[in-house]
Amino acid sequence: MPDGVHAPGITTGRLPKEQIEANFGDLHPPLSPHEAAVAADRCYFCHDAPCVAACPTEIDIPLFIRQIQAGNPKGAARTILSQNILGGMCARVCPTETLCEADCVRNTAEERPVEIGRLQRFATDTLMAGNEHPFTRAAPTGRRVAVVGAGPAGLACAHRLAMHGHDVTIFEARDKPGGLNEFGIAAYKTVDGFAAREVDWLLQIGGITVRTGQRLGDGLTLEALLGSHDAVFLGVGLGGVHALGIPGEDLPGVRDAVDFIADLRQARDLSALPVGRDVVVIGGGMTAVDAAVQSKLLGAENVTIAYRRGREEMPASRYEQDLAASKGVRLMFNVRPTRILGDGAVQGVELEYTDTSGGRVEGTGEHVTLVADQVLKAIGQTLDGAPEGVEVTGGKIAVTGAGRTSRDRVWAGGDCVAGGEDLTVTAVTQGRDAAEDIHASLTA
Amino acid sequence: MADLTTEFLGIRSPNPFWLASAPPTDKEYNVRRAFEAGWGGVVWKTLGEEGPPVVNVNGPRYGVIHGPDRRVLGLNNIELITDRPLEMNLEEIARVKADYPDRAVIVSLMVPCEEQAWKRILPRVAETGADGIELNFGCPHGMSERGMGSAVGQVPEYIEMVTRWCKENYDRPVIVKLTPNITDIRYPARAAKNGGADAVSLINTVSSITSVNLDTFSPEPSIDGKGSHGGYCGPAVKPIALNMVAEIARDPETAGLPISGIGGVTTWRDAAEFMALGAGTVQVCTAAMTYGFKVVQEMVSGLSDWMDAKGYASVSDFVGRAVPNVTDWQYLNLNYVAKARIDQDKCIKCGRCYAACEDTSHQAILMKEDRVFEVDDSECVACNLCVDVCPVEGCIDMVRLQPGEVDPRTGRVVEAEYGNWTTHPNNPMARAAE
Ligand SMILES: Cc1cc2nc3c(=O)[nH]c(=O)nc-3n(C[C@H](O)[C@H](O)[C@H](O)COP(=O)(O)OP(=O)(O)OC[C@H]3O[C@@H](n4cnc5c(N)ncnc54)[C@H](O)[C@@H]3O)c2cc1C
Ligand SMILES: Cc1cc2nc3c(=O)[nH]c(=O)nc-3n(C[C@H](O)[C@H](O)[C@H](O)COP(=O)(O)O)c2cc1C
Ligand code: SF4
Ligand code: SF4
Ligand code: SF4
User: Fold this and answer.
1) How far is B67 from chain A (nearest CA, A)?
2) What is the pTM of this model?
């Protein structure tokens, strides 16, 4: 019997199992062939299309949509995947409303863009349903490259290198590849184990060995990798998290949102996952929104996102904000936590109102206290240390050009490098471009 | 509300929208429902000789060309004339005409090219009280293999001969339905007129193969792995039909011969265009087959509203008004100079005008910073391609240069006087201007 939505504390059984399963269904269900035909017909096949420029991987969007129009979804998938090997995942998780679809000319015409993301999913799903891998390896070059981290950046890099005939070994700290595709992205964006299926599909190219449980810095050194490989790519993401630095942070019930989400993504049975009744999420990015929404979907009664600046400055897009609001999440702006209250466990969060009109976050001295039995911290991730001799700037690995670090024969890309946008699609772009640069230097 | 009452060959109908001879008019059940829906008249599905009726294929008889969102742009059929007994059709026609005296009921006929055959059927048709007959000299498939339909319509002498037989043996109006599957439509039209036809109707369907099945390599529609050419109709054939109607309307030998316009009429606007080119009525098949009988309601209201807006009290006020404006290329005014103008407020920056002009025309559209598209008057020849490919209606206009202005492309001052090819200096055959 579910304890019900009102049960206090962090507990399971707030909602019936079936309800939870329904809540975590596909956020944007796939287009049927008919829907895809109708959606594809809306594309104008623009010249030098603005949507392409707005896609970090520069997929030839008018071409792939025309291929769908012409009844060739697999050809469309090849167009997509040749630029973005994780085009299937990107179709699900890209904030298209701020990327390709934001610049679609149909917005000007009727304030409704071509549904590029969903069409991309239609094409890639069609190809992957047949478990076909559309690329083949070039003749082996005998060159060896080590890729550290099996997230989007590492996978994209490895695939492109393998295509060029190099032998790639991926060293991944976790017991599963996929990076945040597997452990971070909201569950309702990538249902039915898609992340793992996509990795298996990607590896069909051949020439890539994945070694899990291999953490760089934990017995494994960059020196050693450079000794046994011609080049190294670092795609380690951001393993650390920022701390709030306020009293009460260590109370039971206070957690990093990324850990909460990772548990959720790995749970075999979501109804066995405990969640608070009154959840407060601190932060304003995609992680905050995902943690809040998923808490709500698990059955938390009151979920509040507390963000220290105004709505316009919130890193989560307006679309994400509206998604949260539509699920019943309360968005609070211009508040920052000053204390976490509780005796043996979290009981509340004290927030101070802020003024950001001057650009900086200034406390106003006024406070408000929210009841809370679970607090999720989502105030940003940090680089969890960089290997010896690799220069870091602004807390991230410094790179020039296509991901060249300060160390010879070492490249980096994805969330761990400076200048990225912390999106799956940018990680893919950087991994791919670094691979091309590595290839060029190995064959020079 | 404008009066849509139409008088065509003395036959009155409440509006000029008739259903063409085809499945919509194949039987009493359909025609009664069509009249209830508001159609002004029907041309009954073509009747053949007494005796065992023709048979149709028992597999698919239609092929199609789709536009975006599976909009039917063109339909192709391999159906023959009516496959129901003559007697049954005649009885139904008589009943329907008696019940709907205000609607036009025309009987389409196709019998072998022998006078006796026509003499046998015409009195039977006369008995039904139908308002007139239409001679189907147009069907391009099946019947033509048997020496009928377009096999007759492609030989002007036969048209004239059969028309004359009909005029001699039937005392109500005779309309000759023409096939477009011919090089110059004026010859069959002249033949019909010479045979005494009261009117021509056109076009029947265009010989066509709509598609090939790339798995079986059979043309579609496929009957057990084989296909036969069919007759094409629907919006796709409208331009062909409009031209043929105009050719007949402006040919001195047939000018004034009443025309019933057919081919792709889908909205009131299509109908108004046929009528402006001289058609006294229009006939519709594919639009009804695609959307049902109710489409006529849009046609009626649209035509009437347009007439009100233009101040036309009756359809005769505008029938034929575009005919004097149809001319030969050689008489077009070469001193008319226009330039494309892009309305930046309407432009959505898709760049299609640029791609079209840059790749296939005159490199006269400039793509500037921030995707601002502008016309370069010194290259623009006013070909209209950009207007045609622009997805936003009214975004690109053709603006006429005023006499006295300099055309930056040629450097010449635009002349006020009309001047055409016949007097142009580049024309080796040029006549001195009078
Ligand atoms: C909760 C959440 C939701 C998100 N939602 C979206 C979204 O909807 N859309 C979107 O576009 N982006 C989203 N993002 C961002 C996106 O997931 C990342 O930008 C992207 O995954 C970065 O890819 P990466 O390969 O650089 O890093 P990661 O995906 O973090 O992968 C790094 C990999 O390296 C491994 N690793 C780390 N250190 C070592 C080491 N020392 N040795 C070996 N292996 C190591 C890690 O285990 C991991 O597998 C979200 C992020 C989070 C946290
Ligand atoms: C299925 C079908 C059957 C037709 N049968 C006849 C016919 O028996 N007699 C005839 O004169 N025309 C026939 N036609 C031609 C139509 O009457 C008409 O001339 C042609 O379809 C063009 O008009 P539309 O574009 O409005 O369809 C037929 C057309 C179709 C689609
Ligand atoms: S990868 Fe993302 S940004 Fe690029 S086209 Fe696909 S959905 Fe749009
Ligand atoms: S901008 Fe929109 S309409 Fe133009 S090509 Fe891209 S998706 Fe198609
Ligand atoms: S085709 Fe039309 S909308 Fe597109 S760029 Fe040209 S003028 Fe603008």
Assistant:
1) 9
2) 0.88
